[in-house]
Structures are given as C-alpha cells and as structure tokens.
Amino acid sequence: MKAEQEFAAYLKSKPAFMPLLEALKTRWNHSxxxxxxxxxHECDPSLQEALAELLGGSFWGQSTITxxxxxxxxxxxxxxxxxCDLQEVLSLVFDEPLEGQNIQKQKRRVxxxxxxxxxxxxxxxxPAGRWLEEIRQARGSLYTRCCAESEAVLRQWAEAMNQLxxxxxxxxxxxxxxxxxxxxxxxxxxxxxxxxxxxxxxWELSDASPNEEKVRExxxxxxxxxxxxxxxxxxxxxxxxxxxxxxxxxxxxxQGFAEKAEPFSVTLSNVLNVERIESAAQFVxxxxxxxxxxxxxxxxxxxxxxxxLMCSEGQPNQCVWQLLRRVDKTNTQMWYCGDFDPEGLxxxxxxxxxCPGLKLWHYExxxxxxxxxxxxxxxxRRRILESCGCGELAAIQRxxxxxxxxxxxxxxxxxxxxxxxx
Length: 422
Description:
The chain is α/β, with parallel strands linked by helices and 422 residues long. Helices cover 51% and strands 12% of the residues. It has helices at residues 3-12, 18-31, 45-55, 69-76, 86-94, 101-122, 127-138, 141-148, 151-162, 174-182, 192-206, 218-224, 252-259, 268-272, 289-302, 318-326, 342-354, 365-371, 379-386, 394-403, 413-416; strands at 37-40, 65-68, 172-173, 227-228, 235-239, 242-244, 264-267, 276-278, 282-286, 307-311, 333-337, 359-360, 372-376, 405-407. Strand 9 (282-286), helix 15 (289-302) and strand 10 (307-311) form a beta-alpha-beta unit. The longest helix has 22 residues, at 101-122. The radius of gyration is 35 Å and the shape is elongated. It starts with a helix and ends in a 6-residue tail after the last helix.
C-alpha cells in the first residue's frame, strides 16, 4: 500500500479528524495549496487528542487551534507519513479529486464554451445564431460573458431575438411581446435577457463589430426593432398628409387637418390605424421643429397644396418609420433636410438607407459652409460622424471632419422658403 493510501486510511479511521480534513479541503479547493495559518474553531476533546497523537505536543483545553504548514510538515517528518502528497491524501479521504480555483474555473470555462458552441450550432441560420457565431469568432470579452450565461437565459434571448416584430415589419408593446414570446410580461424590463437583446441589436442594426462601443440609446434600438413602450408618446409632426383606410376611405381626422392646412402631431396609434398615407408631389422630411413650423406657416400663407411636410423632431422613432412605410410614393418625390452635426448626418444616412429614391435637399457642402456655427463636437460625437460616410454624404463628412464644427438648419431658412426642388 502506498504511503498516501495508508495515511488516508489512518485519517478516515478517526472521525475526530473530520473538522481538520474539511478545513484542509476548503483551503485546497480555494487556493490549490496550503499557505498561511489554518485556524480550527470549537475543537472538542476528541480532536485535541487526535491532533496530539498525530503531531505531538499537547492541544488539551484549546477550543481554537492554529496550525501552519511548517508545523504540519515538521511533525509528519517524525512519522511514517513523512513526504506524503497532501493533495493526494485528501483526494483519497474524500474520494474525489481536489482542484484549486484556477483549475475549477478552467474546467467550468471549457464546459460553458462547449454549451455555447452547441447552442450556436442549433441556432445556425437564424438572427440569434448569426450573432452568436460572430462573437464566437471574435473571442472577445463579450464572448466570455455570453458563455457564462445560463442556458435558460440564452434560449430566452434567442426566442426574443428571432421573433422581433421588425422581422415582419410590425410593431408591438414591449410587455405584450414579452408575455407572448417569453411568457413573462416583465422579462424585457431589466436583467440578462434584455441586456443580451440590446447588445445583439446594436450589432444587427448598425452593422458593427459586437465588441465595438456604440452610442445609440436603448430606447432607440428597441423602437427600431419594433418594440415600443406605448403608442401614444411615439409621435411626429406632419402637414398636408391624408390617411387612407383599408377600404380606400379618407380618415376624417387626417382629412380635417389637411383641409384646414394645419400641422398636427400624429401618434403611432394614428399611423397604425390607416392602411396608407397620401402625400403631395413633394414630401419633405425635416429634422428641426422650428423649421417645420416656419415652412408649414409659409405654405399655408401661400395656399399651396403641392408640398407635404413631416418633422421627426430629432432621430426617427417608430412613428416616423411606420409613416414613411405607408406613404404612397407613386407620384411623390421624398426629400430630406437636417442639421449638419454628427447626429444629423447619422439621421440622413439612415433615411437614405431605408427610403429608396429619397433625395437630399439643401444638404451639400456649400449648404454646410453656409450653415456653419462656432459649435464643435467632442470625441464621442466624432465617432458617430466617422460612421456616416456613405455615398452622397461622403463629401460633407470629410468637410465636417476637417472643420470640426456643426452647422444648423436655421441659417438656411431663406433657402428653404424658396421651395426650389430640383
């Protein structure tokens, strides 16, 4: 019999040693070795006697006993158990391998990665599967965090990701969607499922690396995915637009404002209640509410009905996208004008990508120069600008990066009032 086996048999034969053995096991699993002091509390006479027999000396009457590895090794050197591998002895006593935290973490990480890889394989070809494969290939910190998530969390996230309303060009209230898909109306309020959904949406909706820092707000990402907090606070401003029902009838509410030549604030609920939207020959999308107000007043003054307006009041929400989707573009040309700042250029890029046939109106380098202000943008906003150099916007982007200043629509008001569409 090996010395370690003999020592383990000796320790197991004396139940009084169990508090010591449990303390050694805990220390070994935590540190992978025995360093420093080992303190045993509430030691009964049987443990005091057993330690005295093994290590020599007297522990009688000591309810708290402190041992060091040096004491242990020196005492054992005088016994037949000298040189025994303590880790092997403890493994034999407890009939299980003892491993330090680092080894345990490595094994756990391997198991988590295997589970993650299997889930990625099962979800292959789905939106969720594509994102998992992307971060698996990147092997960054996001991959490590996702591997550590429970299987239940990952499966809930995958269900939510794959069935998003935007995939069928629909919208839903967040609570209603969570109740239908995840069977819990609060599943997307907070917590790991929501966090994973936001991270994967940042990647899918911005065509960016999953580990790249993004500045878009969570509410904006959820709205673009078709998930809304409510349908009445989601709104935009319109002028001279008519809503048409599913039987071809003109909606009396929309019609009233159009006939009176009055702008009105349309909610997402209003938009979803019509089948399509009729516009005049020229349909202008405006970022700035003050410009919208001034142009709509001028059109009313001139009694012109050949131009329709919409104001997003900043970055487009779902009300804007759903409205643009319903606009009858058969005999209508759509135009966009906005501020010359990073967010304005970002909005222009999104409009160009999502609205085929859209043209820019007074949105060229000479317009930027005319609209220049003394306001600069910081590094965070510069990163937004650097991502907005597609096609028609490339020249403006280069000039803005060169000048490091913003330009605003108010300085172009006189040009807008000419209504010179070309």
